[in-house]
């Protein structure tokens, strides 16, 4: 079954994930931070590959900044990857949100 337009939209999934992240109590967000950081780093690595640059570590700035870091990395990947990877990025964000 094909995905609906909203399900393949990374920006829509990102909005949902950020909203969910902001609703988490601090202790839960802190406990889930490694999961989010793994996604942030994975997106940063993917963006670097797409741009032809070496991967670099994304600094851990804590749970208060994680949603902003995720947003930047999603936009970088989507901008560099084009429409082909949009559904994949959206699916990964949906999976991360389900784990929060």
Task: Indicate the overall shape.
Answer: globular
Residue-averaged pLDDT, rounded? 90
User: Helix content range of the residues, please?
Assistant: over 70%
Low-confidence stretches: none
The oligomeric status of these chains comes to single chain
Please trace the helix and strand order, writing H or E for each element: HHHH
Number of strands: 0
Q: What characteristics describe this protein?
A:
4 helices; 100 residues; mainly alpha; 73% helix; single chain
Describe the structure concisely for a colleague.
With 100 residues, the chain is mainly alpha-helical. The chain has helices at 10-23, 26-51, 63-81, 86-99.
Structural features, described:
- The structure is a single chain.
- It is built from 4 helices and no strands.
- It has helices at residues 10-23, 26-51, 63-81, 86-99.
- Helix 1 (10-23) packs antiparallel against helix 3 (63-81), helix 1 (10-23) packs parallel to helix 4 and helix 2 packs parallel to helix 3 (63-81).
- The model has no long low-confidence stretch (mean pLDDT 90).
């Amino acid at each position: 079954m094909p995905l609906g337009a909203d399900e393949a939209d990374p920006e829509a999934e990102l909005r949902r994930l950020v909203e969910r992240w902001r609703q988490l109590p601090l202790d839960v967000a802190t406990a889930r931070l490694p999961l989010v950081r793994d996604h942030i780093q994975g997106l940063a690595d993917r963006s670097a590959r797409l741009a032809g640059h070496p991967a670099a570590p994304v600094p851990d700035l804590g749970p208060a900044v994680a949603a902003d870091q995720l947003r930047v990395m999603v936009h970088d990947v989507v901008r560099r990857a084009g429409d082909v990877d949009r559904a994949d990025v959206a699916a990964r964000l949906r999976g991360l949100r389900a784990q929060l």
